[in-house]
Design a protein that fits this description.
YCII-related domain-containing protein, two-stranded antiparallel sheet, Alpha-Beta Plaits, Dimeric_a/b-barrel
Length: 133
């Protein structure tokens, strides 16, 4: 391996290279089933209520299931993006999830830096409806 083609670089190098961008630090919690779909569905209602409570607190950025690569099935995996002060704080949030407390899923936390992208919100006053793209 040559020095001009490293396998990784310090986070500071990326921060410097993208210093004019958003650089919003969030944390991705990747969840995986431990014993099939039965325990997942047994804990689904409490899990979703927990997610909604995180949303109400302003902690939850986004969450949802991860489909199989071809998009045809769900094997119980999910991703939860949270606002937290550190990976440890994100793990504390994940540990409170009824899905994890029950042992239906395990998780891992990865820091995620948002630099690029956009969100479009259309609000139609006359019909009092909105659309998020």
């Amino acid at each position: 391996m040559s020095d001009d083609n490293p396998k990784s670089v310090p986070a500071g190098v990326v921060l410097e290279a993208s210093k004019g961008m958003l650089q919003k630090q969030l944390f991705a919690i990747f969840t995986s089933p431990t014993d099939g779909m039965g325990p997942i569905f047994a804990n689904m209602e409490e899990h979703l209520n927990f997610q909604v409570s995180l949303e109400a607190e302003g902690v939850l950025y986004a969450a949802g299931p991860l489909w199989t690569d071809d998009g045809s099935e769900w094997e119980g995996e999910g991703m939860v993006i949270v606002r937290a002060s550190s990976p440890e704080a994100a793990a504390e949030i994940a540990n409170r999830d009824p899905m994890h407390k029950a042992g239906a899923r395990t998780f891992r936390v990865r820091p995620w830096l948002i630099n690029e992208g956009s969100v479009t919100i259309r609000l139609d006053n006359s019909t009092q409806t909105f659309k998020i793209d």
